Every structure is written in C-alpha cells, then in structure tokens.
C-alpha cells in the first residue's frame, strides 16, 4: 500500500473517532433518579458524590444533611448508611422501612395501612404508628459483640396500630399507646441488669422508661 493511501486511511480513522461518543450508557443520566444509589446525576453522568443528597431522599436534604423521604406507591424504603432520615408515610404509601445502618430515623406512619414492617438496628428510631394497621412488625436494636444498641420510641394508636414490637436487643425502648385492647401485637422489651423495662418485670405490658438499668 502506498504511503499516501495509508496516511489518508489513518487520518480518516482519527477524524471519525472524534465523533464517537465515549459516554457509558450505564452512567449517562439526565436526573438523579436515572442513577443507582449511591450515585447521583452531575453534568450528565452518574457519579459518586459523598456530599450529594442520596436519590432515596425524594423530598430533599436539609442543610444539616438530614435525608427527607416521602413514601410513594407502597415502595420499600432504606435510610442510607450513617444518615439521619425523616420518613413520612400516609395511607398505603410505604412498604417495609429499614434503618439498620442509619444513624437516626424519625418515622411517621399516619393513616390506615401506612407502613409495612419497620427495622431499626443500631439506629435510634422515633416511630409513630397512627391508624388501623398503620405499621407492621417493629424491630429495634441489634446485638453486636454482646452490646445492646439502638434506642426506640414507638407510639401505637388505632386498631392494630402496631404489629409485634421486638426490642429484646435494644438498649432502651419505650412503647406507648398499647394499653388498649388490640392496639399492639406481642411486645418484647429490653432486659438489662436482670430487669425488664416493663411495669411487671416481664414481657407483655408496654415497655417503659425506668431507672432499672434498661437504658443506654
């Protein structure tokens, strides 16, 4: 092949390559909802930005970094690891809610069948269940290396406002509104220093805040 022909082919190939898009289809985006968490959309690409508001925070992030979430369509919700979340659900809005690795969650389930099961591991959780079957089962605390972690405040109102409330591995748990018949399922309260955080010293009655050592 003559040198002039070879040079022409090479120059044509180089010129053509300038017009080939190198953007990965998996990373191209027009909005953050196009990206998989923890990536967010910036300048047309899905990128990981530790300071960005995670996509799950569909009601935005507060100036202090709190993630605000509004339930929609019965979707499951997971608060991002290490985050503080405010989660609001009305009738049939939310599926299961997970705050296992979060720092703190405030969860408002207001209206019939607002939320599914709620799991709070090491996170501190403030949970309001107001309505018929407002919440499914609530699990607070996690056992790690023998240490009880996670504090919970659970307020149950309405017929079957809460399902079973399990705080056996929580370091502190207060459950209100369960005095009425049919407002809660089975209650399991934390035990520390040989004492249950209940009025009778046994599981079953509402968990209460005491000075018996059942606190963080």
CA-based shape = elongated
Strand content: 35-45%
Mean pLDDT: 79
* CA(first)-CA(last) distance: 82 Å
DSSP helix fraction: under 10%
Describe the sheet with the most strands. 7 strands, mixed
The quaternary organization reads as single chain
- Helix tally? 1
Give the radius of gyration: 25 Å
What class would the helix/strand composition place it in?
mainly beta
**Uncertain segments:** 5-10, 12-23
Count of spatially separate domains: 2
Q: Tell how many strands the DSSP assignment holds.
A: 17
Brief rundown of the structure:
The chain is mostly beta strands. Helix content is 7%, strand content 36%.
List keywords for this structure.
mainly beta, 216 residues, 2 domains, 6-stranded parallel β-sheet
